[in-house]
Amino acid sequence: MLLGPSGCGKSTLLRTVNRLVPLQDGRVLLDEADVARADVTTLRRSIGYAIQEVGLFAHMTVGENVAIVPALLAWERSRVAARIDELLNLVHLDPHRYRDRYPRELSGGEQQRVGVARAIAARPPVLLMDEPFGAVDAIVRASLQEETRQIARTLQTTILFVTHDVEEALRLADRLVVLRDGKVEQYDTPLAILSAPATPYVGRLLDARDVIRRLSLLRVRDAMVPGTSDATMPEILADASLRDALDAFLSGAETLAVRAGASRIGTIAYENVRRALRAQTAVGTLP
Amino acid sequence: MNYLFAHLPKVGTLLAQHVVLVGTALALSIAIALPLGILAARNRRIATPLLGTLGALYTIPSLALLALLVEYVGLGFWTAIAALVTYAQFILVRNVAAGLRGVPAAQVEAARGLGMTSAQRFWRVELPLAFPVMLGGVRLATISMIAIATLAAYVGAGGLGTLIFEGLDRQYPAEALAGSIPAALLAVLADALFRALERRWTRHLTPRAAG
Q1: How remote is the C-alpha of A3 from its chain's centroid?
Q2: pLDDT digits (tens, 9 = 90+) for A199-254
Q3: Are residues A68 and A131 in the same domain?
Q4: Backbone angles phi, psi at A269, to 5 degrees
Q5: Residue B104 in contact with partner chain A when CB distance is under 8 A
Q6: What's the whole-number average pLDDT of chain B?
Q7: Is A204 inside any structural domain?
Q8: Out of B109, B115, B125, closest to residue A41 by CB
Q9: Residue A191 lies in a domain
Q10: What is the Cα–Cα distance from A128 to A44, expressed in whole angstroms?
Q11: Domain of A8?
């Protein structure tokens, strides 16, 4: 995840990976291989690319758009057809309804879904996304973010994602690069960056003192006390955030039972939340 | 009208000549204008002087241009073709260039990023998206060529102009009308045909300015 204000060079950096921007100096390595040595057309076909403006081809149907890269790679017709339906299902568009429609008949959110499907059509190991959800409304954006996270997990795709939206970065990133004026300010996990901003700029940008924001990155599973729980305790899911737990405590709960799947695996109390936050801050501030 | 029906075979032959003149000129014009238009779309430094020159040629009165061509090329079919091609260039090159420049940047960017070669990008994305504007140019060029081709008779290239000139010479309006009415109908027909093609092509595209 590349995060920074507009004009900081995050898009440029992203575009050096598929060589839409030529490198003047330095190297970009993909799986140890220098992208500068690869054939540029082959390289681009092996890297997914989705942009904010989407850029669906207006004269092609949704199906034809999605099938672009497989067609360029000369897949068999039947395989392409099957892949189109599979992809549209993956991005939650009913193939029967959408396959033969044209881009201008779609809403912004639907277009972006098709754009994502097109980008991952040939199963690229790497996907570049340049502010892909910048032009859709907040509700659609949230669901697209969630779907993107699921897609990345199911397909085992590495996503390099550009955004200027701090919330989006914190929600989606495994690792975060904070950029400013073409320079990397900090590179780490979102939590580590929030806990210990490397520069005052990073701290300001992420509003690192915001405890609630940090709690939303910590999970109940990691702060709970394993063991048995009382049947009368209210429950919380192991994968919920400590922010959710705090909500429950603030609305009157004393101790919560932690549920993972069908069983209860432990308990969590307000004290555990505090301790987790303190421990994490202590670790974060170590040199 | 009487003249027209009395001399139907003659009018038919001249009409056919007219269509061949315009058709040949159109094919040649497009073959020349397409590369020029692509050049103008990609290179603004070439675009300005090129369109300026073609625009200047376009303003020469057609009769004067034909007289000039007779001086150098002589009389006949190809003289008329040369004049028609010259006139069509301005409209065609301008529309080819405008069409290509009007292709949305995001779609070109996506085509590059997805790994199309520049040839694939041109044939699969840029040309189809620019096509409606180009077709608008072809429509306008065809209509003006149908009109200008009546002057072909003046350089001995035949066509419906033959009847118009003969009719004027003999002060016989019916004969002149037998030339001008089919020419006008031909222009209306060509216009309708190309408009239908444009509509068919733009059905799925976002509305864009006509050429």
Answers
A1: 12
A2: 999 988 887 667 777 788 888 888 888 888 888 888 898 888 888 888 888 888 88
A3: yes
A4: -125, 170
A5: yes
A6: 91
A7: no
A8: B115
A9: no
A10: 10
A11: 2-174
Q: Same structural domain for residues A14 and A154? A: yes
User: Is the predicted pLDDT of residue A80 greater than 50, yes or no?
Assistant: yes
pLDDT tens figures, A99-120: 999 999 999 999 999 999 999 9
Residue A280 lies in a domain: yes
Quote the CA–CA distance of A121 and A87 in Å, as a whole number. 7
Residues A152, A74 share a domain: yes
CATH number at A50 reads 3.40.50.300
Measured in whole angstroms, the distance separating CA A205 from the mean position of its chain's CA atoms is 19
Interface test with B, best of A68, A69, A102 (most B CBs within 10 A): A68
This prediction has a pTM of: 0.79
What domains appear along chain B, each with residue ranges and CATH number? 2-202 (1.10.3720.10)
Cβ A242 vs Cβ A223: under 8 Å = yes
CB A67 within 8 Å of CB A84: yes
Percent of residues, chain A, with pLDDT higher than 90: 46
Query: Which residues in A lie closer than 8 A to residue B205 (C-beta atoms)?
Result: 58-59, 104
8-state DSSP, A99: T
Which residues does chain B have within 8 Å of residue A17's beta carbon, measured at their own beta carbons?
A: none
How far is it, in rounded angstroms, from Cα A145 to Cα A167?
Answer: 11
Query: How many Cβ contacts (< 8 angstroms) between chains A and B?
Result: 70
Section B175-191 average pLDDT: 93
Q: Please tell me whether the interface predicted TM-score (ipTM) of this complex is above 0.90.
A: no
Compute the distance between CA of residue A112 and CA of residue A91 in angstroms, rounded to an integer: 10
Same domain assignment for residues A131 and A221: no
Separation of alpha carbons B178 and B185, rounded Å? 11
Is A141 or A213 the better-scoring residue by pLDDT?
Answer: A141
CB contact under 8 A, A51 and B110: yes
Co-location of A8 and A76 in the same domain:
yes
Of A41, A55, A118, Cβ closest to residue B109? A55
CB contact under 8 A, B115 and A72: yes
CB pair distance less than 8 Å for A54 and B106: yes
Give how far A123 is from chain B: nearest CA, Å. 13
A103 is a domain residue: yes
| Pairing mode, strands A33-34 and A29-30 | antiparallel
Note whether B107 contacts A55, CB cutoff 8 Å.
yes
